[in-house]
Amino acid sequence: MSTASPLLAELMQALRCLPGVGARSAQRMAYHLLERDRRGGERLAAALQKAMQDIGNCNDCRTFSETERCPLCAGHARDRSQLCVVETPADLAAIEQATGFRGLYFVLLGRLSPLDGMGPEELGLPLLARRLGEGEVQELILATNPTVEGEATAHYLAELAHAAGVRVSRLAHGVPLGGELEYIDRGTLAHAFGGRLPVSGDTP
Amino acid sequence: MPAIAIETSGYVLHARAWRETSLLLECFTPGQGRIGLVARGVRGARTRTARADLQPLRRLRLSFVTGGEMGSLRMAELETLHALHGEALLAALYVNELLVRLLARDDAHPHLFGRYQRLLDALVVTRASAWPLRCFERDLLEAIGYAPLLDTEAETGAPLRPDGRYVYRPEMGPLPWRPEQGGQAIRGSALLALASGRQPDAADLADLRRLLRQLLSAQLGGRPLTAWSLASLARARPHAAG
């Protein structure tokens, strides 16, 4: 590091803010851009600058968006009576890719976690409560993670929905597809057993 | 400090992601009290310790090496899972925040550890978490050296009368309540119930909630608990939690 020029050292230091990038990776990235891909580096810098400046949060669902309302919330193609609550924009993307869900989302950008300073205000729950009170939403789908904090969040959200008279559903959790009971952790197995479903006679 | 290998029962109070694949854990054990542990590589795909077990509300068999600021977790095996749901989950998160905020690192608390297990067991079976929570708050204050005076008057040492009215001074204890002095009164029966561990009526329970929050606030040094903002919704309903 000591042999690098001040600008180069600054670049390497800056690259280390990326997840999984330590001193060595930062050095490789910096040299790669300078030696082989200056155009790419400039594009990266411009894109970063623009994104950091212009991307905020959607006024309706709180996901990342450069417009006041994100394309999903602003569009007319979605079923506005179903609202799915997720912890992160990455969770939103996962549901969007894996399921045929046609409703809208609400992104908490976290979970209830007192020790991380995350309370109802930080998760935008007053905004969600107002939305539920407006009467458009018929069903609130809870898609928080099945962790202790995610479960606590789900409970809190369910209370909000009950208070507003909105139906609540929760993602099922249990044995993963292709999994083997013997190797599943006890908590998951207990949950799956408790949440077993009736099998009707005519199911193939 | 030389490194020492320790194996003990314990609970994770809080887990925080650290670097790519590791977790920083705040744990509660009987012999070491509150400790900080680094769990390396547990968020990766193949690990001996299940990520799902390194969460609150599971009694674990912890094996770790101490040394320096944070210990290093070697292994964790699930001993007991406290299956809490709904309001009880919020109550448990509240208690965990209390423990992290009020217990100093590396002070042994075997008695309080037992009380903590009993509280979690109680929260599994009851829908009314208020009374078990008040008892635990009392135990916690006692464990950190601020046991509240609950059965005699502060100045005279006279035993409290169940039907008497008192005003509670955090730094002293209960004093006879005089209407002209103002301040909120609490019934003797409420204080005596907390002293003896016999559940009082709903009105006394509400007064104790207020009293214990006042006593805990004094120890928290001005910065309130985040979990208290959760309780403001819960309080509007029956079976209120923290």
Describe the structure.
The complex is a heterodimer of chains A (204) and B (242). The termini of chain A are far apart. With 204 residues, chain A is of the alpha/beta class. Helices cover 44% and strands 12% of the residues of chain A. Chain A has helices at 6-15, 23-36, 38-54, 71-74, 89-98, 125-133, 148-163, 186-194; strands at residues 56-57, 64-65, 79-86, 103-107, 139-142, 167-170. Chain A has a four-stranded parallel β-sheet with strand order 4-3-5-6. Chain A has a two-stranded antiparallel ribbon with strand order 1-2. Chain B starts with a strand and ends in an 8-residue tail after the last helix. The radius of gyration of chain B is 20 Å and the shape is elongated. Chain B has six helices and eight strands. Classes of the chains: A alpha/beta (204), B alpha+beta (242).
Provide the descriptors you would attach to this structure in a database record:
heterodimer; A: 204 residues; alpha/beta; four-stranded parallel beta sheet; two-stranded antiparallel ribbon; B: 242 residues; alpha+beta; OB fold (Dihydrolipoamide Acetyltransferase, E2P); de novo design (two linked rop proteins); 2 domains; five-stranded mixed β-barrel; three-stranded antiparallel beta sheet; 6 helices; 34% helix; elongated
Q: Termini distance of chain B?
A: 39 Å
State the distance separating the first and last CA atoms of chain A: 66 Å
Percent of residues of chain A in beta strands? Answer: 5-15%
What's the oligomerization state?
heterodimer
Assign a percent range to the helix content of chain A.
40-55%
Question: How would a crystallographer describe the biggest sheet of chain A?
Answer: 4 strands, parallel
Radius of gyration of chain A equals 22 Å
Strand order of the largest sheet of chain A: 4-3-5-6
CATH top level label of the largest domain in chain B: Mainly Alpha
Structural class given helices, strands, pairing of chain A? alpha/beta
Q: What would you call the structural class of chain B? A: alpha+beta
SSE pattern of chain B? EEEEEHHHEEEHHH
Q: Reading side by side through the largest sheet of chain B, how are the strands ordered? A: 1-2-3-5-4
CATH superfamily of the largest domain in chain B: Recombination protein O, C-terminal domain
* Secondary-structure element pattern of chain A, one letter each: HHHEEHEHEHEHEH
The CATH architecture term of the largest domain in chain B is Up-down Bundle
Number of helices in the DSSP assignment of chain B: 6
How much β-strand is present in the residues of chain B?
Answer: 15-25%
Number of strands of chain B: 8
Uncertain runs of chain B with pLDDT below 50, 5 residues or more? 234-242
